[in-house]
Amino acid sequence: MGQTRHMKILLVWASRHGSTKEVAYEIFEQMRDEGVDVEIREASEVSDLSEYGGVVLGSCVYMTQWDESMRRFMKDHQSELFDRELWTFSVGLSTVQTGLIKDPARVGATQIGVQPRMNKLFSGHLDPSKLSLRERTIARLGGASEGDFRDWEEIRAWGREVASDAKSLN
């Protein structure tokens, strides 16, 4: 019997203080557990997408934008991203009202005109002890709340949903 060739997926993440990295690894584990052929890499470590049929992009949101390393990744790989299945997620503070220009759901791949199959915003984790003085000041001025607001069951469920969607493409 012939083997079914499964699409290989790359999950690319950008994290400033580790919170988004933890979310990315949880999504990666869910996808892997669901039988998806998935690898995970930090945005600054990816040079080639040729072996992947799909990409999951996940970044922290900082001052209403994805992390600089993810923005650089998207610029460097823009044409390749247009040719692949794409899913995206952002991890940021949920205190900004949706619909405003600062709405974290409005950043990311859509900035380069790529429409992901699925896009998700997760609440983040703000630990002032990990922030620079400038970052603490910005967080305070922005009304950011200290604490871990990540919903791990929501994160795991989204990872399984992406896995199901990816498998439906095979």
Question: How would you explain this protein's 3D organization?
Answer:
The structure is a single chain. This protein is α/β, with parallel strands linked by helices. It is built from five helices and eight strands. Strands 1, 2, 3, 4, 5 and 6 form a six-stranded mixed β-sheet that branches. Helix 1 (19-33) crosses helix 5. It is globular.
Write the layout of secondary structure elements.
Blueprint: E1 8-14, H1 19-33, E2 37-42, E3 54-62, E4 65-66, H2 68-76, H3 78-82, E5 85-92, E6 118-123, E7 125-126, H4 133-141, E8 147-148, H5 152-168
Give the amount of beta strand, in percent: 15-25%
Rounded radius of gyration (Å): 16 Å
Our measurement of the CA-to-CA distance between the termini, rounded to an integer number of angstroms, reads: 17 Å
List the secondary-structure elements in sequence, H or E. Answer: EHEEEHHEEEHEH
Please identify the structural class as seen in this structure.
alpha/beta
In quaternary terms, these chains amount to single chain
Helix content estimate: 25-40%
Mean pLDDT equals: 81
H/I helix tally: 5
Stretches where pLDDT is under 50 for at least 5 consecutive residues are 1-5, 95-106
Number of strands: 8
Q: State the shape.
A: globular
Characterize the main sheet. Answer: 6 strands, mixed
